[in-house]
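Issue 218. Parser rejects a valid record. Input:
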Amino acid sequence: MVKFSKELEAQLIPEWKDAFVNYRQLKKHVKRIKLARKPMRVSDTNYDFGRSIFDPVRGVVNRIYSKLNNGGQKPEIAQAKNEVSGREDGDEDEEEGDEDEEEGDEDEEEQVYENELVHLFSEEDEIKAFFQRLDDEVNKVNEFYKTKEKDFLERGDTLNKQLQILLDLKRVLADRRRKNLAANMGSGFFSRSNSSSGRNSDYSESQSEYCDSPIESQREDVIAALEKNGINFVNSATRGKTKKGKPKMAMRIDIPATTPTRTISAVTSMLWEDLVNHPKKEGGGEFINRKRIQCAEKMIRGAFVELYRGLGLLKTYSSLNMMAFTKILKKLDKVSNRQASASYLKEVKRSHFISSDKVVRLMDEVESLFTQHFANKDRKKAMKFLRPQQLKNSHMVTFLVGLFTGCFVTLFSVYGILAHLSGMFTSRSEAAYMETVYPIFSMFALLSLHLFMYGCNLLMWKSTRINYNFIFEFQPNTALKYRDAFLICTSLMTAVVAAMVIHLILLSSDFSPHRVDMIPGILLLFFIGLLICPLNIFYRPTRYCFIRVIRNIVCSPFYKVLMVDFFMADQLTSQIPLLRHLESASCYFLAGSFKTHNYETCKSAKLYRELAYVISFAPYYWRAMQCARRWFDECNTDHLANLGKYVSAMVAAGARLTYARQPTQLWMVIVLLTSLVATVYQLYWDFVKDWGLFKPKSKNPWLRDDLILKNKSIYYVSIALNFVLRVAWVETVMRFNIGMFESRLLEFFLASLEVIRRGHWNFYRLENEHLNNVGKFRAVKTVPLPFRETDSDG
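Output the parser choked on:
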């Protein structure tokens, strides 16, 4: 049987951890009560240390304990807490006894500081202190539950109104389509409305003052539908009226600018409104269109899913806390030989977090509405959205990880032996081999190393209860687990090393070199084809999610920036060597150098040299544009400061690339200055902003108040390690006189160190983000809602 304290720790909601009952602290109180019951007799010890200032106290304490143990009447505590009841059922006692035996080790670990002053307190004083603490915990749980319940109920009411508006607008839109088809008219009443003031929003107005009777009746239907749901346009003095006295209608549908089309539309609308700065001219406008309705429906559906998830978490919160109160009171009964738990549990069960059924009723209502309006009355389909099932861990994945790891080690050993026997790294064949094989295989090696580090991140985040699926907004049923990341890494490297062995064997035989040199290109095309493969094999949801995120990064700043987007963009800033290798490999095969073995085309050509700057700048540029977009959306100047960090890194990267081609004294000074500024900027942002460390008034010196890892020294070591790896650029200034193979090996080693630094950085970055969510008790995503009222004049 698992200890309940560990079971509670494993099942509680990480973001609400501080709002749960402090079970460990209550256990310590129970142990103090147990210690207070042990008599402190002089005859029990054989040690004599002479006289002590506590000798008079010992006599009083011994007399008190002798009275208690000789059947003295024990005083009652509070009336509500002293009612004696019968024992619990025999099965429950047996279960509690088993748990106590298993929790003995834990009690030994949680040693309570015990000296002679402990025995100055009587058992009744300890019990009173215990119940006072228990009352505080019940009140804490109650207040948190009431707050969250109120929040979710308000969300439910708002969503009901939004859903009713959506249904009414869909009805009006359907009526319009039917009438248009019946009358065989070329133009209808509804169309896309122009965007007015306000960012990322679409306004709709009905401004026609020369409407015919059918059109006017449809407009009146829309007004009536909206006014029925609390959006009143009749009493607004700022709105004009039509010829029939009806108010001009202003309805705002907030569709987030998540795509380039919406972003350009929002920015154009904002600039046009700022330049013109006058109300729109009267004209025949249409109220709304089908595309807007579909976007609004998708937003409302997502809001219902998040509401249902939040209600489920609150229900779990209630049941886990009730279980904790029951367990701790049973422990008290066993230690104090009293049966006070039944009466106190009655009071707990009358508390709001247990007696209230509003959450359950709202969950049933959400299920019903979602099934009816978003799942075509198919409950099974609705539950796939509301309660997505997580895939169970398969032992086959673990087996395959071990299998591919063994294959990789064996094949790599074979490759090393064959390379040595064939003299592949001698001066005679070194240049040709490094130009053809090195870019492709080192690219896959860096990618595999990054996947391995990501798998380690997933393992650490899971073991430390960091909710990375919630932070990245991953679907729990398709999210990648650490075993899956290790499987992708090992299978990729096994295939790459197998291709290296085959290439080396064929190259040592009588096969034509230009045919053999096609193997790295074929391997590259194979993995690109696997990445975009539409078949549901080899983690298709993860592959398509990766492609979607890369699209969002490349098209920055036109896509809305999510956490996973800028997290992945940060990974790309550490993979510039990989992108450069991809450039070299693409040039090598597209220019046909594998046939002629003429490498100057991809080394000294002007276009290639200019493209090297573009590739070195691209990751920093994308990340800077993401910062600009976030500043545009959130108006937070910290994003502009973060943008400056990536601009400084871009300048330093350009200076180092130029110095590699023009190793003059001037460029060396420029490299030192720009790299030093960029490094200081990056280190400050790493430690203070991304990791949240270096808090001068923290209880943990130069760290932060809340730490997930118990060993503080790990954080200090991580700070030093990140500093050392950040200054690896010094190698570019120290020009070593070494051969081509040693030079490429050194480049690969430094690139690998940067990947390791990024994987190390990832853990603390998400730890800080998780602690921010915990501090705000943010366990459910807030989905923006589409409909809200606005003035017709903007």
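Fixed in the parser; the record now loads. DSSP finds 31 helices and three strands in the chain.
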